[in-house]
Backbone:
């Protein structure tokens, strides 16, 4: 009889151990925040909204339930953390300024990857009301949704180094940063073409000059940073060559047959913009492009990056976009 | 008398196994002349989606310098080739590229190395370098085994 | 000269015994009785070693269920998926079955609670009489349900093998079914008639080198008590056992026999094969063909490079899946049985055998077993061996919750077996076809005119199948 009870004891003890240890761990986990990442179509972030007091550390344990994701907080200078399926990653966030922050996924996980966002509400005393600065395109009164088409385009890809070699004296107004931000390359070309000093230059030469002016408004570091941002965030739709032929382009094109996608998201997406199209690009100013990046495409499928990128990052992206139109040195 | 019979039986049996072993050896190691194709440079653009590679079967000649451009079309995918110790990973929008010399002949499976969903463990493709002589030898060996079995069981 | 002397392995031993003029007519010289080895006997006679092994599997099973239902939903980081479909499957196909036949059944956790309830105790040996003790209906006997169960697994395998929750629910359902059936039916009804694993384990056990048999039949003839029969949880009578397919190697009969007349024998491979016609049944034929067909299908879906095939197997309910299901079922239910029957019929015609085709097909199925066993081992090498590295990962972090039990860095890198696995698979298939051919030759000898040409259709069936497996695995 003793043997029987001993045997029963072994079984009961074993089962108790095997059930209680995971249960205890599960309880312990619920005391902290475990962020589950899933593709946007199957749930996105869980939980989607977090709250923390300013200055207090926010410990997050992150795991993915399906594919590779990443975690980063917009406008915060903290490197992204990769979230691998079946594994736990850790991150501790400390916020120095109260406000509403957006966290987002940093590894492409579906065509709706950019919709994987959540918010962190950081509570705390707001010492002075900082008026939000409106974006440049708003201050300039630009309509970034209006159709725009360049009336003429260069025959060859303009190159900045050729423009530099021409060694021409360009009036200072055209070289200023404010001019660069608020005018299109075509504006500059037209202005330069009508300058008496540059009358003897050919059309292509003037384009080269314009390219050079455009390049001198950016730095190589800026362009490089823009390239990295582009590769990580834009190339999947706009294509690595910027031609609007990224891997998700087909799914976004209107009438592509992907009705299901359009229905769930309730909008008519369209083919991603082609940055190699001179007609469109040369008739857009940097402010215009930056506005599109910040605001998004109003239902076209173009994400709004205003909450994610810092202003410097948006200008870096714009600087990189010009490399599709002008030969500007891009360091790897 | 009985011992003598047994002895000759043993001898014959030993013979049979020796012949079989020799035939197996021959089939396994007889050199099959390799194709006369000169090594060239080949580039393959593989589109990886959940859960297949397109194209999934790559055919190259031994000695070719092979470049594989891995394009991920929906999520992050990886690629690792058995027998070649190569591994890479591609995010959508960031084509990954590996270059290697296909010096080992045969049929090698490659598979995804980044969990991309349920069927990820079985997301595979095949790299065929030259002719799959192992398969031919194997077919011959299996036929040989069958005849050997029939021979041994004929009494 | 009995058929035992046909086996190469035993020719020496048999001739020696006839020469020495042994009077022990019932002592089979080609068997090694493990029960006579003192330390092994001590381990088998005492219930504790077996109980401890069963405790481990039962506790492990409950842990597996917990991991499956509550752990990470990522299959290759979940203890349940890796330990069941990779680790346990590998030990089953590469260890338990080829070396011990139906040996897994002796420590399988699924029927244990039901068994214990039936006998009213864990260690204390009661009789298996608790519960309703209904007889399993005659019409449902045989391995038909087990074949059906295996086909069902095959249809949903792409999801079951990769989704932890689905695995969890399936295992829980089997567990509940086993316990329930133990309370309603007598003996191990679940194990004998429902469990798909038991189905093919038992079938391949006929080819395996371990058996439980009576030593001296005379002693049994004079023994009224039949204590072995009353002890057996499977409801078997050891004296009447014709082959090893129904015996779960639980050793209860060995412990119960007062005359020490039962043996756990090590025997030559294939001892139960090539025998009398009446010992083979059509349901076994069907299961053997199902196993062959499934090996082909699983190799194509899981090991092959055809993504469209994998997707069609995975997206259950979609049109491609319906096509996959139709193809899978047609292969196993129509194509292979028809082809095999045609080959046997050809043999029947050529050798002018008068016996009914059904009986011949049933008996010739024995030839399918060695090839099937070897094919499944070869498939497991491609399917599971490269993924064994994941076992370390799930032992370290079973639920995918970031544990570090073994302090190991999580390596999800798979094992590159391409160096040795193809050759190993070729050797296995060579052994399989050699052995199957031998069995078929043996069978044809006992059935009718024995001629190599007359056996060709069946042998060609084996050859074509082997080539198919080779192409899928190493092509």
Residues:
């Amino acid at each position: 009889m003793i043997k029987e009870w001993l045997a029963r004891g072994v079984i009961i003890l074993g089962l108790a151990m095997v059930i209680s240890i995971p249960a205890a761990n599960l309880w312990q986990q619920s005391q902290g925040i475990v962020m589950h990442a899933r593709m946007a179509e199957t749930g996105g972030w869980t939980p989607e909204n977090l709250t923390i007091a300013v200055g207090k550390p926010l410990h997050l344990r992150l795991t993915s339930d399906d594919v590779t994701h990443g975690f980063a907080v917009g406008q915060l200078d903290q490197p992204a953390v990769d979230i691998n399926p079946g594994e736990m990653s850790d991150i501790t966030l400390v916020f120095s300024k109260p406000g509403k922050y957006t966290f987002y996924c940093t590894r492409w996980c579906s065509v709706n990857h950019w919709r994987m966002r959540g918010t962190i509400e950081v509570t705390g005393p707001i010492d002075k009301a900082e008026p939000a600065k409106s974006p440049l395109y708003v201050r300039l009164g630009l309509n970034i949704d209006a159709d725009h088409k360049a009336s003429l385009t260069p025959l060859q890809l303009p190159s900045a180094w050729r423009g530099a070699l021409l060694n021409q004296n360009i009036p200072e107004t055209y070289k200023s940063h404010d001019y660069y931000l608020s005018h299109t390359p075509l504006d500059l070309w037209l202005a330069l073409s009508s300058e008496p000093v540059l009358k003897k230059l050919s059309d292509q030469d003037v384009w080269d000059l314009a390219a050079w002016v455009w390049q001198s408004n950016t730095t190589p570091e800026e362009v490089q940073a823009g390239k990295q941002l582009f590769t990580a965030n834009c190339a999947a739709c706009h294509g690595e060559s910027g031609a609007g032929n990224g891997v998700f382009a087909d799914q976004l094109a209107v009438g592509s047959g992907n009705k299901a996608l359009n229905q769930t998201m309730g909008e008519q997406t369209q083919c991603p913009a082609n940055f190699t199209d001179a007609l469109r690009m040369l008739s857009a100013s940097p402010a215009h492009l930056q506005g599109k990046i910040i605001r998004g495409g109003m239902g076209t499928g173009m994400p709004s990056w205003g909450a994610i990128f810092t202003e410097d990052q948006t200008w870096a992206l714009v600087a990189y976009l010009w490399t599709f139109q002008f030969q500007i040195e891009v360091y790897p | 008398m009985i011992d003598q019979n047994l002895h000759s039986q043993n001898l014959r049996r030993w013979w049979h196994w020796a012949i079989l072993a020799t035939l197996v050896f021959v089939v396994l190691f007889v050199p099959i002349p390799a194709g006369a194709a000169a090594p060239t440079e080949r580039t393959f653009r593989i589109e990886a989606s959940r859960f297949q590679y397109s194209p999934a079967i790559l055919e190259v000649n031994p000695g070719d310098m092979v470049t594989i451009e891995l394009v991920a079309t929906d999520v992050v995918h990886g690629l690792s080739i058995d027998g070649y110790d190569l591994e890479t990973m591609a995010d959508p929008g960031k084509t990954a590229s590996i270059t290697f010399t296909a010096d080992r002949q045969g049929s090698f499976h490659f598979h995804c190395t980044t969990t991309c969903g349920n069927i990820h463990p079985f997301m595979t493709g095949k790299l065929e370098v030259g002719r799959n002589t192992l398969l031919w030898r194997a077919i011959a060996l299996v036929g040989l085994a069958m005849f050997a079995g029939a021979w041994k069981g004929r009494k | 000269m009995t058929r035992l002397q046909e086996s190469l392995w035993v020719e020496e031993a048999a001739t020696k015994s006839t020469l020495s003029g042994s009077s022990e007519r019932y002592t089979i010289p080609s068997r090694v009785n493990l029960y006579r080895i003192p330390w092994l006997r001590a381990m088998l006679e005492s219930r504790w070693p077996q109980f401890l092994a069963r405790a481990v599997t039962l506790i492990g099973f409950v842990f597996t269920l917990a991991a499956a239902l509550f752990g990470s939903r990522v299959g290759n980081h979940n203890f349940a998926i890796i330990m069941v479909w990779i680790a346990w499957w590998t030990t089953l196909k590469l260890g338990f079955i080829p070396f011990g036949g139906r040996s897994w059944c002796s420590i399988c956790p699924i029927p244990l609670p039901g068994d214990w309830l039936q006998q009213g105790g864990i260690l204390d040996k009661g009789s298996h009489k608790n519960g309703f003790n209904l007889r399993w209906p005659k019409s449902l006997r045989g391995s038909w349900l087990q074949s059906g169960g295996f086909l069902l697994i095959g249809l949903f395998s792409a999801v079951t093998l990769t989704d932890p929750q689905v695995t969890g629910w399936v295992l829980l359902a089997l567990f509940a079914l086993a316990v329930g059936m133990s309370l309603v039916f007598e003996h191990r009804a679940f194990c004998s008639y429902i469990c798909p694993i038991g189905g093919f384990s038992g079938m391949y056990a006929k080819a395996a080198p371990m058996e439980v048999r009576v030593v001296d039949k005379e002693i049994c003839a004079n023994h009224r008590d039949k204590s072995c029969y009353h002890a057996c949880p499977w409801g078997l009578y050891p004296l009447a056992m014709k082959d090893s397919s129904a015996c779960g190697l639980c050793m209860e009969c060995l412990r119960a026999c007062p005359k020490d007349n039962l043996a756990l024998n090590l025997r030559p491979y294939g001892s139960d094969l090539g025998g009398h016609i009446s010992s083979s049944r059509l349901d076994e034929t069907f299961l053997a063909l199902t196993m062959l067909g499934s090996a082909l299908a699983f190799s194509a879906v899981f090991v092959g490079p055809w993504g469209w095939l994998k997707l069609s197997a995975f997206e259950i309910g979609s049109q491609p899946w319906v096509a996959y299901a139709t193809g899978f079922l047609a292969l196993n239910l129509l194509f292979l049985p028809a082809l095999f029957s045609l080959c046997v019929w050809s043999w029947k015609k050529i050798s002018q055998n008068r016996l009914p085709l059904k009986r011949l097909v049933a008996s010739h199925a024995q030839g399918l077993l060695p090839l099937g066993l070897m094919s499944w081992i070869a498939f497991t090498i491609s399917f599971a061996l490269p993924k064994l590295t994941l076992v370390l990962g799930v032992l370290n972090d079973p639920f995918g919750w970031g544990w570090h039990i073994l302090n190991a860095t999580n390596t999800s890198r798979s094992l590159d077996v391409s160096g040795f696995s193809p050759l190993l698979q070729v050797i296995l298939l060579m052994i399989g076809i050699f052995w199957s051919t031998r069995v078929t030759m043996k069978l044809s000898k006992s059935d009718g005119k024995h001629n190599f040409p007359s056996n060709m259709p069946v042998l060609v069936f084996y050859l074509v199948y082997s080539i198919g497996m080779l192409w899928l695995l190493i092509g």
